Amino acid sequence: MIMRYKMKILTKNKTYEYPLRVLPVYEWDRVLGFNQSDAILKLNEVKYLREITSLMISPKFLDEFYVILDQNREFISYYKDYLVAIIYTAQFNTFHLDNDLKKPALVYLSEYENNVGDFVAFDYINENFEYEKVATSLSSSTSNSNELVAK
Question: For residue 112, how far is the Cα from the chain centroid?
């Protein structure tokens, strides 16, 4: 089981990189409770998200993430949704089962720690994991959805 990852967040001006570590189950449950359905809902509450990201990423992460959100409001729902999905799937070793998380996105896992302690890039990472390409793709899919609603 993978215990550590590198997560990247793409913005127009900068690519941020953060370490992400998988928590012992007791630590996770201590914060979010025993019931996993409740845990998913709680991850959408800032109070719980702050505590989990403090443990998994860094104590200052959520403050930095909100600065990113303030500067990138056009894609705010993508940033938020992917962050929660990545945290949850990394914690329960199901990340590899979700093909959507392997597609170019504004928030993604770029590397994992192998069994000798080296970080290795995931094989799906390519030149499409770049802000302009992802933003263009998201903008065009949003435009297509808006056109369908208008018809």
Answer: 14
Cβ-contact 87, 51 below 8 angstroms: no
65 with 4: CB under 8 angstroms?
no
Q: Categorise residue 117: left if φ over 0, alpha if ψ from -120 to 50, beta otherwise.
A: left
Token readout for 137 is 């793709």
Strand partners, 112: 5, 120
Please state, in angstroms and rounded to a whole number, the distance separating the CA atoms of residues 73 and 137: 16
pLDDT in tens, 94-108: 998 999 999 999 999
Rounded distance between C-alpha atoms, residue 47 and residue 66, angstroms? 13
Number of Cβ within a 10 Å radius of residue 140? 10
* pTM across the whole model: 0.90
Task: Round to whole Å and give the CA distance between 98 and 143.
Answer: 25
60 CA to centre of own chain: 16
